[in-house]
Automatic annotation (TrEMBL):
This is Longevity assurance proteins LAG1/LAC1. Its main location: membrane. One of its GO terms (biological process) is ceramide biosynthetic process. Residues 148-396 form the TLC domain. GO terms for molecular function: sphingosine N-acyltransferase activity. Pfam families: TRAM_LAG1_CLN8 (PF03798). It is a multi-pass membrane protein.
Amino acid sequence: MTHHRDKTRQTCNAQHYRYAAVDGLSVCAIQADNDDHPTECPEWQQNYHSNRENPPQSLGAEFLEHQLGLCVNVMMVVLLTYYLFPDLKDKTGGFFMPSYPRGSLYDIGPQDLKLVIGFIVFFTATRDVILNSILKNLAARLGIMKPRNQVQFAEQSYMIIHYTTYWSWGLGLFMRNTSTEVGGFENLLISLWSGFPLLYMDASLKIYYLSQIAFWLQQVAMLHLEHRRKDHLQMLLHHIVTTVLLVGSYSYRQWRAGNAILVCMDLVDIILPLAKVLHYLSLQRSRDIVFAVFVAAWIITRHIIFLAICWSICKHVHGTTMAYGTYSTNTGAMISPENNNDILINIFQPFLDPSSGIVTFNANIRWLFLGLLLLLHCITVAWFFMIFRVIMRVLRGEGATDTRSEDEHNCQ
């Protein structure tokens, strides 16, 4: 028995060190590929299945197995209720269309939570269909025969589809909402904070923003439903901070700044999955080129542009634009330079006190948002050090592994 266990451990370790650098990296919503499927380790697989009597794990496994059916049933109930019961249209319409129309634009408020829930259900269903009915079959047609690799190819391809869609969409919105009179990088940074509080948004921006919130809430849930990774707490912290910033910037009418940060952060989440897909297709030269592009894009977007936005909060906010004071959410004009020190009641005014018609900007809110952004940057710095270690291993010609995943992947 001991000999069999040692042999199994050696086999798993040998498989582990054959993975390329990009195959083991997990950043943001992109998880590492080499530690999420315990099927390669027989004893671990036995322990995994023996844990099904644990109620939370069992519930999560059951949900993952039946997620498509559950989501389709929920969507059908809502749609049928909307069309069959006219008196309930006002209560159910918010689950699949924007609320608070103001002519051709939209306001924000508590009903927006319904659309977030609707998008969570929609993303869960479409992800299951795309992964299992389309991308796994595509993997087989492309010559990827190993079931485990088919799953990983499908997951990374789905991320490429999702982030390409949202990065392109977000970039288009940002460019469209940027005045042609804005010239120079510093003026572009100042424009992120100009016009506070923004009063209304068009349907495209509203759907983009609420669906992004829904996606990240779903990612938080999936961290608990799927196999727990070694860096679970780090990923959880990143997802929670990202979600809080998204919800806070949406509620506080900082849509342009939030749009800019999303575009800045989403680019690398296209490139890393692409490198992984090329790895599974055995296109090693293309994979290496894409990985180099990923590293360059990471540095530019995550550590230069992102920090420039943080610097702008210190330099331009309150000094050049967006002065402290009390503003009208009906006209956007400053009512008084006086302000209170409340944080939550002001940030979440459309949800906690929508009838007040006023919102205050103060130093506490300014430094809270900056602190959350810098916390997010600290996480990306930690990830970059791990990326750098992988780069050094590749340059030395050593087997490239993700240091966060070694302990999990090895059979115990």
